[in-house]
Amino acid sequence: MTTKTSMHIDPYERTWMIVSGVMLVVFLVAVSVAGFAMGIQLPNPDRRVDPATVATDPNSPWHPDNVGLRELSPGKYEAYILASQLQGWRFIPNEITVPAGSTITFYVTSQDLQHGFKLENTNVNMMVIPGQVSKLTVTLSSSGEYNFICHEYCGSGHAIMYGKVIVTP
């Protein structure tokens, strides 16, 4: 006849195992709620571009003659924004105006080095990598000014890289 032996776990260790398991469940629930219920989305690379010619090619949406806001249909917009250290640490364009309730898809790229793009008080926050077009969509339902900033240190003029989206009533 075999006897069953039980493994002894110290009560202190057992407590920490339970706390760790509960924390894993809480984190899983938080990520699920953020992803599905709150609409948090990850920026995805839309396409690749040549960083050396992105601002000089006349067919590029980031060329000075083409860059900026495009209205696709009433309330639906695309914003092509170029982050540039070569042109004086700035976003081009640095101001966009749309009506309240608009849905904007941001296409952001860089011609020189890695930057960041954060649209304050929204879920738009992405890295801007030379040669890669980062894409995120947001609906701006309340009027006001939404500042966007570079959140990735990109050199001595990094602190002056900002712009704004003006949402009119």
Provide the descriptors you would attach to this structure in a database record.
five-stranded mixed β-sheet; 2 domains; elongated; 169 residues; alpha+beta
Notes on the protein architecture:
The chain is elongated and about 85 Å long. It has one helix spanning 11-37; strands at 44-48, 68-73, 76-84, 90-92, 95-99, 102-110, 115-119, 124-128, 132-140, 144-149, 162-168. It is α+β, with helices and mostly antiparallel strands. It folds into two domains: 8-40; 44-168, Cupredoxins -  blue copper proteins (Immunoglobulin-like), CATH 2.60.40.
Concise structural overview:
With 169 residues, this protein is α+β, with helices and mostly antiparallel strands. The chain has 1 helix and 11 strands; from the N terminus they run αβββββββββββ. The protein has 2 domains: 33 residues; 125 residues, Cupredoxins -  blue copper proteins (Immunoglobulin-like, Sandwich).
Tally the helices: what do you get?
Answer: 1
What percent of residues are in strands? 35-45%
Q: What is the gyration radius calculated from CA atoms?
A: 23 Å
Could you please say which CATH topology of the largest domain applies here? Immunoglobulin-like
CATH superfamily of the largest domain: Cupredoxins -  blue copper proteins
Order of secondary-structure elements: HEEEEEEEEEEE
Percent helix range: 10-25%
CATH secondary-structure class of the largest domain: Mainly Beta
Main beta sheet strand tally, sense and closure? 6 strands, mixed
What's the total count of β strands?
A: 11
User: N- to C-terminal separation?
Assistant: 82 Å
